[in-house]
Amino acid sequence: MNWSLSPDWPGNFWLRLIIIAVVIIAYVMSSVIMFIWMERRVIARFQSRLGPNRAGPFGLLQAFADTVKILTKEDIIPTLADKLLFWIAPAIAFVPTLMIMAVIPLMNGLQLADLNVGVLYIAAVSAIASIGVFLSGMAGNNKYSLVGAIREIAQLISFEIPMVLAIAGLVIASGSMSVSGIIEAQNIPFILVQPLGFMIFIVAILAEINRTPFDLVEADSELTCGFNTEYSGMKFALLYLTEYSEAVVGSALIATFFLGGWRGPLLPGILWFAIKMFASFMFILWLRGTLPRLRIDQSMRLAWKGLLPLAFVNLFIIGLKSVFLPDLSLWISVPAYILISLILVMLWAMFMRKERQSFGG
Amino acid sequence: MTTSVDYNDLASQLQGQFGQGFTPAEDYVEVPCAFIAKAAEYMKNTLGFDYLGMVTAADYADHFEVIYQLQSIKTNSSALLKVRCPKDKPFVPSLANLWLGASLQEREVYDLFGIEFTEHPHLKRIVLWDGFKGYPLRKDFKGKAYGASD
Amino acid sequence: MEIEPFTAAEIERRESDGIEALRAASQHPIPDPDSWLDEEIKRNVMFTTVDAALNWARKTSLWPVTAFTACCTFEFIGASSARFDIARFGMEVLRASPRQADLLVCAGTLTWKMAPQIKRLYDQMAEPKWAIAMGACAISGGIFCDSYSVVPGYNHIVPIDVYIPGCPPRPETLLAGIEALRRKIAKESIRKPK
Q1: Is chain A touching chain C, with at least 3 CB–CB pairs below 8 Å?
Q2: Dist CA A105 CA C130 (whole Å)
Q3: Which residues share a beta bridge with C65?
Q4: The domain containing residue A321 runs over which residues?
Q5: Which of A241, C4, C67, C185 stands the most exposed, by the fewest C-beta atoms within 10 Å?
Q6: How many domains does chain A have?
Q7: What is the ipTM of this complex?
Q8: Does A244 map to a domain?
Q9: Residue C87 carries which DSSP code?
Q10: The CATH number, out of the four listed (3.30.390.10, 3.40.50.2300, 3.40.50.880, 3.40.50.12280), of the domain defined by the range C39-186
């Protein structure tokens, strides 16, 4: 059965725009609610305890209770805060995540804007969300949030380059910069064809969305909530929402670029997309439940000395393959590249360890 | 296990260096108030007691006692020194020049007992706040349990 | 607004003045916010669905602030660990920033030197907020009640909603106290004076 939406359904441009925008917003919001529930329960199970289970069956209503409670809290604005920035920064942080979802197809044809430079658009817009986080840290007149904001920008800049280089590898392999073109080119998912790109992309996207092990931006033990220290009430609800909608977008990007998007047999596209997105988020949660947090200098060292050279090597190998061996059978190229990427990662790990020992960690 | 030194031995060594006044007891040596800084320096540099374990004090009926514990890391032994000072003139030489850690501990003793350490670089209250009146760990401090208000 | 430079002595003097002022002002305990027990008010106030929904949301998602003073903290940590797990009540999100938290768990002995900071922390919390006094030292100063440096109970500094006895109270006792607070929150109304 071919589940697809034609590019000009339902005929009227504005009607299509409004309907698909509403669908995307509903999808993101419901994913955020599910992700909040999943995070609390799954991390709890990782730590041998139960999670929230009093708020409705299996604790499913916990996210609603949190949201209603936060929205009805008193809204505090510090006296010396920069009022305009304080008010607008959470919005600047939240809106770009919805903007990225506009170019990601939830189903065949269910895409708000089929840009033919969708990849470039995603790389550009994902940086604006971090600027919103930085502004919210700066606007509060609080030294802890300022330090959190500075760390955020440092991390963003460091990990943006390897992420874009990993995506560039996808562009070469699929021959098109549009997101639907990349999905169409994935007869087998790109996670097998470009394992090194996948590893670099996962690490980089974790750092972009400030998840463990890169959540030093809001490290409780170091920074008393970092950039959102001074926020309460509805502005804090927006920042809390941003954290999870960035996770939604990150999982959606992994599902789209490397796992094949909405493609899959039998089930409708949107169901496959949801399955892949939730699977990526489970992996992200697994990392959160297992790994400790990196320091800012450790994470930047990883970005500049670890990921960036690997990303260049990845791009080089993919370029070589597509110029000199374009018709190499998948049975050879997939295992060969997996082997090469494992060897490269191990070499880099040894290199980084030697270098860290000489610097004293 | 850290062993105590033989206090008779220690007292005779100190007496040989500084003269009379060092009385050994079963588990400490009593040092005259004027000699404590010099005796501690001698023990640190010559006898090898390079680690100051603690500085504390006790309030007896007619005098204060300041108690020092010195330890030697090389020989894994410890020595206890006690210094008496009169209640109306509680002045004791400070060991802050020898061990930096002594400065915090002596400030605590000053804060709670009122014993002043001469030549201390920064003698002021450390665990209580500046405006606190009185020295709480003295036996004659009247607290709430004894009928004082607040 | 320009920042005046302080010397260390000036900072210490200001802190000491603040402590003495707070000590003078806190000689009598703050009356407990127990107007919700008042029969008059109960008869005059009708519970609406809005009240029920808000109260349910507020009691299901109580976020403590990470500010604990002494040994009862470890019983709180034990209660938030695997065996007793306050995460079941939605409380495992401990927010370090007081502006996003709604519960101050007063765990441990409070000294006069720390009291201005706890008062500042409580004032920075956004309404609606609650406070639980956990352990004997938080209720009345405990075994240190006559000491020269101990505040005889947190209720001299912040208004307390629930008192949990124990030294330290076991995690099950803490959970019973949290349950009592949840029952109290369920009875609040947005129209009643708090």
Answers
A1: yes
A2: 46
A3: C95
A4: 13-57+78-359
A5: C4
A6: 1
A7: 0.84
A8: yes
A9: G
A10: 3.40.50.12280
Separation between Cα atoms, residue B30 and residue B14, nearest integer Å? 11
Q: Read off the pTM.
A: 0.86
In chain C, which residues have their Cβ closer than 8 Å to the Cβ of A70? 100
Both tokens of C137, joined, read: 């030292």
Q: How far apart are alpha carbons A288 and A213 in whole angstroms?
A: 7
Identify whether the C-beta of residue A149 lies closer than 8 Å to the C-beta of residue A137.
yes
Question: Which CATH code fits B3-140?
Answer: 3.30.460.80
Q: How confident is the model at residue B148 (pLDDT cuts 50, 70, 90)?
A: low
Distance between CA atoms of residues B109 and B55, nearest Å: 8
Nearest residue to B130 via CA among C115, C26, C10, C27 = C10
Distances (CA, A) of B108 to A244, B88, B103, B126: 50, 19, 9, 6
Q: What tens digit of pLDDT does each residue of C12-49 get?
A: 888 888 998 998 888 888 888 876 666 555 555 666 77
Output b/e per residue, C57-66; b: 16+ Cβ within 10 A.
Answer: bbbbbbbbbb
Among the partner residues C15, C27, C147, nearest to B129 by beta-carbon distance: C15
Q: Does B147 touch chain C (CB under 8 A)?
A: no
Would you list the domain boundaries of chain B?
3-140
Q: What is the pLDDT of residues C120-162, one digit of tens each?
A: 999 999 888 999 999 999 999 889 988 888 999 999 999 999 9
Q: Is C4 left (phi over 0), alpha (psi -120 to 50) or beta?
A: beta
Domain-located, residue A114: yes
Chain B environment of C29 (Cβ under 8 Å): none
Measured in angstroms, the CA of B111 and the nearest CA of chain C are apart by: 13
Candidates A49, A58, A66: best to mutate against C (most CBs of C within 10 A) is A49
Decide if C17 and B131 are in contact by the 8 Å CB cutoff. yes
- Cα–Cα dist A242/A152, whole Å: 14
pLDDT at A257: 93
Inter-chain residue contact C20 with B129, CB threshold 8 Å: yes
pLDDT, tens only, C171-184: 999 999 999 999 88
**Cβ contact B150–C23 (<8 Å):** yes
For residue A307, what are the contacts with CB-CB under 8 A and spacing of at least 6?
Answer: A159, A162, A200, A203, A204
- What mean pLDDT is predicted for residues A283-302? 89
pLDDT at position C38: 62
- DSSP at A177: S
- Domain borders along chain C are 39-186
Question: How far apart (Å, rounded) are the C-alpha atoms in residues C123 and B95?
Answer: 44
